[in-house]
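FAQ: What does a multi-protein file look like?

Like this. Sequence, then tokens, then the next protein.
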Amino acid sequence: MSVKKEMLGILGGMGPEATSVLYKKIIDKTEVTCDQDHINILIYSHAEIPDRTACILEGKTDYLWDVLGNDIDMLKKAGCKYLAVPCNTSHYFADKFNEKMDGNFINMIEEASKYAKKRNLKKVGVMATTGTVKSDLYKKELNKVGIEAVYPEEDIQKLVMSLIYDDIKRGGKGDRHVFKEISEAFKNMGCEAVILACTELSVFAQNYELNADYYIDAMECLSRACIEKCGGKYLD
């Protein structure tokens, strides 16, 4: 007996390339024998959504929520049962997302934290935007499952932001030397693994082969949850 499929809504555009990476991950990781085995997805790549980090740091969260909330209403009215948002920083509004979706928001930060717990990790680095770091989004979830979250020092955080904003968001592949310097800083702080906690870093992971034992791609965790919750079969 086949499992009932539910429509997945993806609110993307934050950035557009990251949204395409999530879609490809879902396609590549769904076990199929024909087109009909894939899950049904409606993607809205709203590229004009204001910058999430800037809005959080500048106290413009009400304005940002108005935009995001309207977009979610549109996806819900179009028949989407579940929602995924391939932007870690926007998970500042995770509770509101979940409320709008009647409890059917697929939380990327929760999924990545559960995966880290499954691996019995105790100390994990978080490579993310300053908006995600300042909001303490990952620390809250990781602490819930008994994992210590580690954020980089200010000088290393500046390198993370430069890699994301000055490189990948501008269409670059990502500077491997900068990434290595950031990674070394996490290793020096005793991190057993590092979560790629920005979807632009998921783009970086697509461009270069990374050690899957050390780097946890939050969007990979999200893709698995999307497939399984919407009636597909995840390809291990």
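And here is the next protein:
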Amino acid sequence: MAQTVFNRVEKKYIMSRSIYDNLRVALSPFMEEDEYGEHTICNIYYDTPDSLLIRRSIEKPVYKEKLRLRSYGIPSLDSKVFLEVKKKYKKVVNKRRIQLSLKEAYDYLDNGIRPSKDSQILRELDFFLKRYDLQRGLYLAYDRIALFGKEDNDFRVTFDARIRSRKTEMGLECGDHGSLLIPDGYYLMESKVMGSTPLWFTKILSDLQIYPASFSKYGNFYKRDMGAFDFDGFMLHREENWNNRRNVAC
């Protein structure tokens, strides 16, 4: 049973296609695209019947956690997928995951049939499942391009497009269709760093006037379903906030 652990600081940015194009040119001397090119990431987020986990997350507590089942592309029941617990304490993200077949993952999550191979991360997942009454809460997919630093492979930048979700047919094997969260032609960028952010990256963002945004894919889908998320309103509010900060700085 393959296990993986990540600890890193993540920041998010929303941008239009024109800004994305300029940024890709500026990043090209320092970063290169990974071997997978553009690929589709599919997720099922598990939550309580009253959506406790995502409601807590939206409140921006010091500590928060989520559980999701992830595949790269549309899997069959025999395909390998990742079962992940993602935790965030202050600004540091900790992601712990194990690899299972999709059928094993469904048996474990939906029917309580534990995988045969034991591990520390599996025991942590056992505790998570005992702590919360979980069910499939949301299907979420997006098309991703990932870059890594030429001098520091641990520094990564990802671009997600066509972020989409559904609350029916919530199986990873059922295709990657869904309703869009943000308009086609916009990108959600995430920087992922285990140490300090490279100075050249900070300068590029400053030169292109690209500023971080608090943006949760699952959280904003939940807000949209509650009638509390509108992309145009989000972008306008974000622009007003940054204009106010610049005015104060001057």
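Q: Is there any per-entry metadata?
A: Some entries carry free-text notes. For the entry above: The chain has a mean pLDDT of 92.
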